[in-house]
Amino acid sequence: MSNNAKMNCFVIMPFSATKGEHTEKYWNDHFNDFLKPTIESYELCPLTAFRSAPLRGDIVRQIITDLVTSPIVVADLTDANPNVYWELGVRQSFKNCTITIAEYGTPIPFDIGAKGTLFYHPHDHIKTSQFREDIIEAIKDCVENPSYPDSHVLEAISGRGSLFQILMKEEALRKLDALLSEIKFNQYVMRGVKTVCQQNNELIKDKKITEIQVIVMRLRTSSITSMVANRYLDAGDEFYSYAENYFNSLIGLNENLNSWDNPTIPKGQVEKRLLSFIDNVIEYISSFQKRVTEQKKKLSLLL
To answer: Sorting pLDDT into bands at 50, 70 and 90, what band is 154?
Structure first.
């Protein structure tokens, strides 16, 4: 990042009286005379520290925008203000680089305290000096490592072993189950097509044209279309090449089946064409079924 680039730092904090000496004036002075100059003293990258106004009306939309878009957020947890925790929850649902601070002695909930909170001493200049060093170091870490996780929410929904990955795995397994069901149906149709073709050939030989049968079922393609289009499995090019060939063979077979009862095509021609390659297709479908089953087993073992 350029040293000339301005970076916003949104400060989450109370804006009205909370407890004891923490009046509205106290919080205004706390921001203007302590937090803002401390944050903006970071020299490696110019920062602009700003805070929200009271929550009301349309300003909520702007606050949410600031919480989501600001590269760095500092949240003061002193006095457990509800608005502060609401804003912190919004922030940690979307982005990392959030620094939590509090006045010394403030009890911190365990789910937030696990990430570490910086404490300041408003009446102890020596300890406050240490706080200034700590928060500058935290800001530096945010600037240099913006992707480092400090949000329990984002950790839970992203990355290996995360909720997001678990949900994606379950969704992929459901899609594979649907694909395997579709393959079984297509195998059933293809066996039926082969049987009817063989029977029709015998009827044609015996000149019993009026008894010729036609298959009305068509091969299903919705699940394999989803796989080929979205590639939702972490599988190699060879697997997807196999899937594409399977998909293309289904399209071609359905076109042949659609021409079966075309009166312009001589009786027996469709049967002859289908029987010339149907055994290879049935074998190919079985081979693809095995590959899909192997992928399902691999996916089931993950996490």
So the answer is: low
Cα–Cα distance between 110 and 107 in angstroms, integer? 9
CATH number at residue 45: 3.40.50.450
Confidence at residue 52, expressed as pLDDT on a 0 to 100 scale: 81
pLDDT digits (tens, 9 = 90+) for 205-264: 888 877 888 888 999 999 999 999 989 888 889 999 999 999 999 999 999 899 887 878
| 189/134 same-domain check | no
> CA 166 → CA 36, 122, 151, 234, 300, distances in Å?
41, 45, 18, 14, 11
Residue 118 CB partners (closer than 8 Å, separation 6+): 99, 100, 101, 102, 131, 134, 135, 138
Determine which helix (DSSP H) or strand (DSSP E) holds 88, and give its type and residue range.
helix 82-92
Instruction: Report the C-alpha gap between 214 and 200 in whole angstroms.
Output: 9
User: Which SS3 state, helix, strand or coil, does residue 12 take?
Assistant: strand
Helix (H) or strand (E) holding 48: strand 47-51
Whether residue 278 contacts residue 197, with contact meaning beta carbons closer than 8 Å, is answered with: yes
The verdict on residue 137 lying in a domain is yes
Which tokens is 155 given? 């950790």
Q: Are both 126 and 14 inside the same structural domain? A: yes
Query: Which pair of tokens denotes residue 115?
Result: 């990430």
pLDDT one-digit tens code per residue, 277-298: 899 999 999 999 999 999 999 8
Q: Are 138 and 118 in contact (CB under 8 A)?
A: yes
Bridge partner residues of 102 (DSSP): 119
Q: Domain range spanning residue 120?
A: 7-157
pLDDT at position 122: 79
Does residue 129 contact residue 112 with C-beta atoms inside 8 Å?
no
Report the b/e string of 136-148 with b at 16+ CB within 10 A: bebbeebbeeeee
